[in-house]
Amino acid sequence: MGQSSLARVAETEDALRELAGVVARAWRANDQHPLVVGLSGALGSGKTTWVRAMLRGLGYMGRVPSPTYTLLEQYSIGGLTLVHLDLYRLNGDAELENLGLRDWLDDPNSWILVEWPERAPQLALRCDLSIGFEEAGENGRRIVFDGTTQAGIEALTAVRHGGLNNPP
What we know:
Layout lengths: L1 E5 L2 H20 L6 E7 L5 H11 L14 E6 L2 E7 L6 H6 L2 H5 L4 E6 L5 H4 L4 E7 L5 E7 L2 H13 L6
Parallel strand pairs: 2-5, 2-6, 4-5
Antiparallel strand pairs: 1-7, 3-4, 6-7
Helix pairs in contact: 1-2, 1-6
């Protein structure tokens, strides 16, 4: 759908917070079912930074650790449950089921942000948005967004029409 190159960490975090807020507002306008976002990229490419930025864009100001060892972190924000999954260390689909994923997938007030979605192919198929993080030069990142469901495409279209400075 689109890409953005960002050079410095602070600049990246500010831009991601703004963009994540726009995505969040666009999705809330269409919230027919849970938002499922797949976050792909190498270790250290910005996946957890995106989640932190999205939480900040939603108004959450608490601590946002990486769920690398716990597999998940859960946040409540004004009636919304945001679940941050890191599947890097996943030991199979049964482990994912034991985390309560089915309940979140049935709740339209849940957003599920999944790092390493390719490690759970069934969940990867449910992603509304795919966000890929790639290195772009020595200190840069390229972020590639793709709407993978009709609702995801509509959210990205709203972002494109609203722009970063004019939320939909």
